[in-house]
What we know:
CATH architecture: Up-down Bundle
Oligomer: single chain
Number of strands: 6
Strand order of the largest sheet: 1-2
Largest sheet: 2 strands, antiparallel
CATH topology: Rhopdopsin 7-helix transmembrane proteins
Strand content: 5-15%
Order of helices and strands: EEHHHHHEEHHHHHHEE
CATH superfamily: Rhodopsin 7-helix transmembrane proteins
Amino acid sequence: METLNVSGGRICFSQEDLEILEDPRTPTLRRISYGIVLPAICCLGIIGNMLNLLVLTRRNMRGTAYIYMRGYSVAALLAILFCIPFALRVFIHKETGRWNNWPQAFYHAHLELFLGNGCLGVGVMMLLALTVERYVSVCHPGQHTRPLCGPPHLTVALIPLATFLVYLPSVFRSEVTTCFLTSEGPLIYQKRENQSFLHSLFYQVYKVVLEIVFKIAPTILLAGFNLRIMVVYRRSCERRRRMTLSRTMSNDEDSRTFAEERRLILLLGSTSILFLVCVSPMVILNVTLSENNLSYFSYQVFRALANLLEVLNYSITFYIYCLFSEDFRNTLMRTLQWPWLKSGQGGRKVPMKRSPLARPTTTTTPPTTAVATPGHLARVSV
């Protein structure tokens, strides 16, 4: 993409030359996808995950499940933040970039994908660890007195270290090159793929294994565990319904139990499908991404769609919480309204709203079950 001048230094192509080489529809696609839609999704995700952390750090959110939920929210928030410079680079600087300073070029060449994909991988592992713990507590109650994945705080600390270590080879997939705008112009830094590394046998195997470990296998495991949780929870509700209906439960309370069960089933089913739809395109993209493929407009459309879907999956968690979890909504309302309510009630503490459902003394599941879905979480009273 450059020509050689007399002194041996490369002269950069002008912006007009680069636009002539690409499909005329690509700039419009880039402007809509990375200049409008992706920033809007990122704004929703940043606000949502910050509110997630605000709620999940409340006093009544101190269980093991909420440790993993906080870890997931932090990873999702960081991944969305790292997505912003990626979107700006694609929108403004295209694929190779044209920077006046070396640190900025170094970030986009070596750290951009490493940090963004690493945070997404951390989020997936947090969800997987949480789902395993919930599966054990719901489907095999009483068999494990300690968390199966180890001390939660230690696990939350080790997951990022292990994940970023696995993603470390992606640092070397690109390199920084230099060129001149004119024969006597200023030095410009650009990003270029490290072809020798990308075509090595190690990287060809590595990128496939990476997608299996962080995309395909977690999707299968999360779907399987959540399906089992859903079946066991439904059976537990049915047994509890038969026990309580013969005692004092009213029709109104019974309808609330049915409504809660429906919410959980809809949550697990819909979000499992959503996660599969949002993650599958990214698996294909990461395996096939190359400068040669990026020259095709159809591949650019597929790439934009895959990026938008993955960011969307990590941006709507808060809104799923609010839609399906009554406990989460109540905690959010108490947290946001606390200063005004306290001053309006003479400094008295706002009472916690409790579920109107009767709590049986004998049950096959814990009093509260934090259910993990492949991209979303919900705390369900059972």
